[in-house]
Amino acid sequence: MKRWGFLTGAAVAAIGVWAFYALTGVSDDDRLAAVLTDHCLPYVQTGDAPFADMGRTPGVFDDVPLREAVSDGGARLIYDGRFTAQWGIIDSAGRASRICEITPVYTERRTPAFVVRPDGFTSRYADLLGLSGAPDTAPNIAAWYEDPTRPDRGLRVVMIAGDGVVSNVVVMDDLPDE
Predict the structure, then answer these.
(1) How many CB atoms within 10 Å of residue 86?
(2) Kindly report the CA angle at 23 between 19 and 29, in degrees rounded to 5?
(3) Residue 156: inside a domain, yes or no?
(4) In this structure, is residue 111 part of a structural domain?
(5) Local confidence band at 43 (pLDDT 50, 70, 90 cut-offs)
(6) Number of H helices, E strands in the chain
(7) Which of 40, 105, 109, 135 is most buried, judging by how many CB atoms fall within 10 Å of its CB?
């Protein structure tokens, strides 16, 4: 009798845990949208420090390549070390720009990309970014520009994307002239 009570309790607990994870699951689409809207876009537009509430600083034994040309910024390993986020100031086409870059950490056990829904990807992220520029049409590149006639100026978002995956994300905006 005790055994049946234990098994019933275990089954109810298992169903509860399964339901919790099924209802509160976060997709890579959600993660990518959060990186863009909560961290990268605010940083490049206002200079507010990104990623303060997530991830960890890369350590001595983390083999993560960082851009050496980036100054006055930082880096974090985010989403359980799947990605490296780096931000700071960089010289872009002769102008100082804020950059926020998300790159995958390549390991055998991790998917080196955000797995996203391929249907409606371009329009979904154009709406999310709120940029008037049309996306770039180069193969495996999705890019939006504040001014499509000047892709080297203003706010720009570039993603290396394939069929249902986004591996690298770069968000940049020019620093205001002083």
Answers:
(1) 22
(2) 140
(3) yes
(4) yes
(5) very high
(6) 4, 7
(7) 40
**What is the tally of structural domains in the chain?**
1
Query: What's the burial of 127, exposed, middle or buried (CB within 10 Å: 0-12/13-18/19+)?
Result: exposed
Q: In which residue are the tokens 């234990």 written?
A: 6
- Structural domain boundaries enclosing 55: 28-174
CA distance 67 to 85: 11
How far is Cα 127 from Cα 46, in angstroms, rounded to an integer? 20
Q: Which two tokens stand for residue 68?
A: 């050496």
Query: Do 130 and 120 meet the contact criterion of CB atoms below 8 Å apart?
Result: no
- Encode pLDDT of 123-166 as tens digits: 888 888 887 655 566 778 888 888 777 777 889 999 998 888 89
